[in-house]
Structure formats: structure tokens, C-alpha cells
Design a protein that fits this description.
Layout lengths: L5 E6 L3 H15 L3 E6 L2 H11 L3 E5 L1 E2 L2 E2 L1 H10 L5 E5 L6 H8 L3 E4 L10 E3 L4
Parallel strand pairs: 1-2, 1-3, 3-6, 6-7
Antiparallel strand pairs: 4-5, 7-8
Helix pairs in contact: 3-4
Length: 125
């Protein structure tokens, strides 16, 4: 990871969610990051070689991939890059996602989750 700027690849098809994510980044990192926003998994995987992200943030419901398939294909495309999953799905096989990610983060954004409990770290492998 670059000491000066955090390179983030966001894979999110919902423009409103992408905007909220960027606003949260601005608040947390004071624009000390580079954000590449892709709206499909295929687009993100095509851009990986040149994007060189420090972290990949994915939604589980994309136009060309859904659920654990998003996680598995992302990991195959960038096995050394940490993956963070964002989802508004309260009911989902989170253990499968967490076991696929290993020690990366799984973040839930569903409304009933308190903000300070939104990020659930998977067990370290």
C-alpha cells in the first residue's frame, strides 16, 4: 500500500451507494485516496492490471455476478489484494463469504445494524 494515497477499487452498481461510500472516504481520509469506481465485476476485473488497488470493495449484488460468486471471482483476479464486502442484505450466508475472504472484512450496511457494529472481521487464517 502506498504511504501517501490509498488506491481503492469500488465495485458497486448503485450510484447512490457509490456516492455514500465516496462521502465516507472523504470524511475518513480527507481525499488522501484514489477511487476507481466500476459498475460490474467484469469491468473491475478488466481494470485490475492497471488499477493496482490496495483494497477492493465489492457489492454482492452486481449485474453480472451475485453473492459468493462475486467474492470468489474477485479473489481469483487479485489473490493478494484485501477484499471488503459491502451489502445491505441482512440474511445472507456470511460464514461462506468470511471463509472465502479469510481475514478480510465483511461489512454489513443494513439499516438495523448499528454503525459501530457494521464491520465484522473474519477469523484470521
Amino acid at each position: 500500500m502506498s504511504a501517501e494515497r490509498l488506491n481503492i477499487l469500488l465495485v458497486e452498481d448503485n450510484p447512490g451507494d457509490a456516492r455514500l461510500f465516496k462521502e465516507a472516504l472523504n470524511e475518513a481520509y480527507a481525499q488522501n485516496y484514489t477511487l476507481l469506481h466500476c459498475t460490474s465485476l467484469a469491468q473491475a476485473l478488466d481494470r485490475l492490471p492497471t488499477a493496482q488497488p490496495d483494497v477492493i470493495v465489492v457489492d454482492l449484488g452486481l449485474p453480472d455476478a451475485f453473492g459468493i460468486d462475486v467474492v470468489q471471482r474477485t479473489r481469483m483476479g487479485a489473490p493478494a489484494v484485501p477484499v471488503v464486502v459491502l451489502s445491505n442484505r441482512a440474511v445472507f450466508p456470511w460464514r461462506s463469504v468470511a471463509s472465502t475472504l479469510g481475514r478480510e472484512a465483511v461489512a454489513s450496511t443494513f439499516p438495523s445494524a448499528p454503525r459501530n457494529c457494521a464491520v465484522n472481521w473474519a477469523e484470521s487464517s
